[in-house]
Amino acid sequence: MVIHEYKSSVIIGEIVAENISEEDYFATYEGHFEWVNGKVIKMPPIHQGHYQIADYLADLLKIYFHFKPIGIIREDPFVMRLKKPKSNRQPDIQVILNENMKNLKETYMDGAADICIEIVSPATVSVDRGIKFEEYQAGGVTEYWIIDAQRKEALFYRLDDGVYKPLIIQDDIYTINQLPGLKLYVPTLWKDTLPDIPEILDLVKKMLAD
Question: Which residues of the chain have pLDDT under 70?
Fold first, then answer.
């Protein structure tokens, strides 16, 4: 892992190119690369626990949208292009609601997703909790989730007058206002074995039937 200072931010990963235009970034770099103000950053490898949580949340959201087709998800390495600040990030999961679908392009989201989810790994903790928090807030991402398995901590923020405000979890359950009927039982995320698709299917059916 290489840590680079860039202006007031800390960039985690290996800077593989500098002074690269957005056009060249999209044309040349595929895979787990992000772009910030002309710098192309190769992101650190993803660990097994990270994959498990990302897969669980992705399956939960996909099944929810199957029954309630009000949006879709896109997963890393799909790019979210923010104009202010100027960056191209690859959130672990992006939720894009139907009213925002006009900004979804073939290879990237042109502007802020409605919900961005980042699963923290030891190599990315300072970015997910720091510079990405600032970028997603300034870029207009309505809701930002930070899932940190090491600390067994899930943080949820919603944009309020341009500023992220923390959201309250009651009885370990996060009620997702933008996704009516869907609730996230946070302790599930810290299990060694996460629910499989049949279990998630039954869970979502029950939630939507209540």
Answer: 1-13, 44-48, 122-126
Domain 46-209 of CATH type 1.10.10.10: no
Whole-number pLDDT of residue 38: 84
How is the chain classified by DSSP, letter by letter? Answer: --EEEETTEEEESEEEESS--HHHHHHH--SSEEEETTEEEEPPPPPHHHHHHHHHHHHHHHHHHHHS-SEEEEETT-EEEETTTTEEE--SEEEEEGGGGGGB-SSEEES--SEEEEEE-TTTHHIIIIIHHHHHHHHT-SEEEEEETTTTEEEEEEEETTEEEEPPPBTTEEE-TTSTT-EEEGGGGG-SS---HHHHHHHHHHHHH-
Question: Over the stretch 5-18, which tens digit does the pLDDT of each residue have?
Answer: 333 344 456 788 88
Quick one: pLDDT at residue 5?
32
Phi, psi of 74 (to 5 degrees): -130, 140
Position 124 scores a pLDDT of 63
How many Cβ atoms from other residues are within 10 Å of residue 118's Cβ? Answer: 27
